[in-house]
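Our consortium's second objective concerns turning raw sequence data into structural hypotheses that experimental partners can test. To show how far this objective has progressed, the report includes one record in full. It was chosen at random from the queue rather than selected for favorable results. The single chain below, 118 residues long, was entered without modification.
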Amino acid sequence: QARLAESGGGLVQPGGSLTLACVTSGITFNMYDMSWYRQAPGKGRELVATIAEGGATRYAESVKGRFTISRNNQNKTSYLEMKSLKPEDTAVYYCNAVLIVGRTYTYWGQGTQVTVSS
């Protein structure tokens, strides 16, 4: 059974840094594209960053230059390093895994809260 577990969220001051981790189990991790989404209060879920199974990355414009997504296929873990955090980065951050082979396999974590406030 697939499981994604996020960790690393918390309260941080503006300008600070956090690194989120998404530990997976029950999936062939190296075949999946891994993404981080976030959902702020009263808003829809938005895509923050994606790292493809081959390592290519893309980012939302709002986080380019500040966030870095990475993956460790041996540890079956995806990371989101966040720097220069702003109050508008406050949200619940979700890990997502997607594999498209004829049909789409997609799995979500439960989310981890990130709060940027002084």
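The partners drew two points from this record. The radius of gyration is 14 Å. DSSP finds no helices and eleven strands in the chain. Both points have been shared with the crystallography group to help prioritize constructs.
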